[in-house]
Design brief:
Strand content: 15-25%
CATH class of the domain at 4-130: Alpha Beta
Structural class: alpha/beta
CATH architecture of the domain at 4-130: 3-Layer(aba) Sandwich
CATH superfamily of the domain at 4-130: Methylthiotransferase, N-terminal domain
Oligomer: single chain
Shape: globular
Radius of gyration: 22 Å
Largest sheet: 6 strands, parallel
Distance between the termini: 59 Å
Bound molecules: S-adenosyl-L-homocysteine, FE3-S4 cluster
Length: 446
């Protein structure tokens, strides 16, 4: 009987993609997937440490699994991702049942590490020094599907004071344009129709040959078989006319921009070292919307950054009211050891205040989401049909070009196709509709 694996993934899309790459490697070795971590022969925790909560959840779940090892002593437990990169060998002391720790640049060696662990029983740590220049370039063995992620760059050269990512992912490195184009072509041949380009700052993509993000979008837009191109995350600091123009000029680039603002107050933005102020952010949004009027806009916001006052927080609320994001990820500040803010500033906004602020922000954003979704009723959207809806498998679900989830009745044969859906109802997170007959709203003037 084949050995089984279970990968438990935390955090961002980059981690999801790393998990996909590990899955490809494991299946290549004959492993079969299981969703039950307690009976698996190999369990990988692919971790995130951007906020304390995510890190604590991963460690606790790994500790819980340790007891299963008593009944299944051959089980191998590995930890990958940002916690593994950040803590390395220390994790072996913390979690006695842990066999392998593998860093953010080393996970492609996972199969060999497992073999060695099974052969020798040795506990192994493979965590490359993140300060070294980038060396790994894994073209993933993909398992197939409709939508896939593509890394266009690794790491980050910004040093936002709250953020652990540069420490766990290293300096920015942009992959050669031709290599990305080849990878996406191969995905199209394999049946993928949608790609999401991944990077911490995709719009600062710049190759050794001076090709930028706009060049990349124009090149990918030409690939036959690919219908939809998404990208995340864009940084306001690197938003340039060429980026905005390329988005407008490439028909396959979807009408959705994720542009993290973090705060609406200039003093807090300065403390965060975000390199723009609220006026500049608003200007960029206006400029972007002028050229791309049908776009949806989403963001990330942190509340309770050290020293943030009530008035300063209210400026964030005001920015949210003014910009009217289609949705937002909203977080309470979490000091991460090793970051500038954690080392030099006291986490002085009490938890109770952070909770109250984030709740007010969520309430405001939810009401905007609902109003915006209600505005979609009566419109027709082009939807890429993904499969059965999660909550009601008798229905289908898919995404609009603007990245909104739509649930609608339809036959299975629609899965994998583009359909026009008339929006008939909504809540703050999901649209409901019926397969319509009119032209997509994105070609209308209203
Ligand atoms: N590269 C992206 C974001 C990386 S982390 C960017 O340019 O913004 C994803 C999000 O997590 C961030 O946008 C931020 O809102 C949030 N985040 C990062 N560090 C955090 C911390 N210490 N506490 C709370 N939220 C944090
Ligand atoms: Fe983090 Fe700022 Fe880079 S949020 S990933 S340091 S752009």
């Amino acid at each position: 009987m084949a050995s089984t694996y279970c990968i438990v993934t935390y955090g961002c899309q980059m981690n999801e993609h790393d998990s996909e790459i590990m899955e490809g490697l494991l299946q290549g070795r004959g492993y079969e997937r299981t969703s039950d971590e307690f009976s698996a022969d190999l369990v990988v925790f692919n971790t995130c440490c951007v906020r304390e909560g995510a890190e604590a959840r991963a460690l606790a779940r790994c500790q819980t699994l340790s007891s299963a090892k008593k009944t299944n002593p051959n089980m191998v437990i590995a930890m990958s991702g940002c916690v593994a990169q950040d803590q390395g060998r220390r994790l072996l002391d913390k979690i006695p049942a842990l066999d392998i720790v593998v860093g953010t640049r080393d996970y492609i060696h996972l199969p060999e590490l497992i073999d060695r662990n099974l052969d020798t029983g040795e506990r192994l740590v493979a965590v490359e020094d993140i300060d070294k220049p980038f060396s790994v370039n894994a073209t993933p063995m993909r398992l197939g599907g409709l939508s896939g992620f593509v890394n266009i760059m690794y790491g980050c050269n910004n040093r936002c004071t709250f953020c652990i990512v540069p420490k766990t992912r290293g300096d920015e490195y942009s992959r050669p344009l031709g290599e990305i184009v080849d990878e996406v072509r191969a995905m199209a041949d394999q049946g993928y129709r949608e790609v999401t380009l991944l990077g911490q700052n995709v719009n600062s993509y710049m190759t050794a040959d001076r090709e930028d993000f706009a060049d990349l979008l124009y090149a990918l837009n030409e690939i036959e078989g690919i219908w939809r191109i998404r990208y995340t995350t864009s940084n306001p600091k690197s938003c340039r006319d060429r980026h905005i123009g390329a988005v407008a000029g490439c028909d396959k680039v979807m009408e959705h921009l994720h542009l993290p603002v973090q705060s609406g107050n200039d003093r807090v933005l300065r403390l965060m070292k975000r390199a723009y102020n609220s006026r500049r952010y608003r200007y960029l949004v206006d400029l972007f919307r002028e050229q791309n009027p049908l776009h949806s806009l989403t963001t990330d916001i942190i509340v309770g950054f050290p020293t943030e006052t009530e008035e300063e927080f209210e400026e964030t609320l005001q920015l949210v009211r003014d910009v009217r994001f289609d949705s937002a990820f909203m977080f309470m500040y979490s000091p991460r050891p090793g970051t500038v803010s954690a080392e030099t500033m006291k986490d002085d906004v009490p938890l109770k205040v952070k909770k109250e602020r984030v709740q007010r922000l969520i309430n405001l954003q939810e009401s905007i989401c609902l109003e915006k979704n209600q505005g979609e009723i009566g419109r027709v959207h082009e939807v890429l049909v993904e499969g059965p809806a999660k909550k009601d498998p008798t229905m289908l679900q898919g995404k609009t070009r603007t990245d909104k989830r739509v649930v609608f009745p339809g036959r299975d044969r629609l899965v994998g196709t583009l359909v026009d859906v008339l929006i008939t109802g909504c809540n703050s997170h999901t649209l409901q509709g019926t397969v319509g007959t009119r032209e997509p709203v994105l070609q209308e003037t209203t």
